[in-house]
Amino acid sequence: MKVDLYERIWMIGVGIMLAVMFSVMAYAGLGRGETPPSHIETINPSAVLSDARFRQTGVSADGSGHLHVTVLGATFAWLPQTITLPARTPITFHITSVDVVHGFEIVRTNGQTMVIPGYVSQFTTTFAPGEYMIACNEYCGVGHHLMFSKLTVVPAAAWQAPTAIFARRTQTALGAGGEHAHN
Ligand code: CUA
123: CA distance to ligand 1 center in Å? Predict the structure, then answer.
């Protein structure tokens, strides 16, 4: 079969691009353990309130001093209702839902994730000082527009460290691969 020179160049070029993109995906997924969205940590959605990881919501610190925020999504509120954090400090959020799918969005920041029953969504980010609204950006029912809470970010020097100790993450069969993405 005769293939025109220019067509052959385009075919080879596209082939190279596909090979590069698949290699990047394979490296990210298999080599670096990156899994969308955030990491794979599971939770029994009907037993969230008795799960040690979510017994206490709000700000806590782990043994190394790293800060964590534990958040529960429920129709129609984020718990806790107010969060105060230090500026320019890495914070790891752990969020799950007790009922339906919600969308956790700290407005005007990159702190955003879907919150799906059965999974613990996680991301780590930093904030500039200010007041931020935390909205729900996935329609979850008649009270969807009422589902918001408030984040206040103060200069690190003016911030009071939490006394709460971060609850150790328990592993589930599916979640065993997610822990390496945790720090
Ligand atoms: Cu929760 Cu919309």
Answer: 19
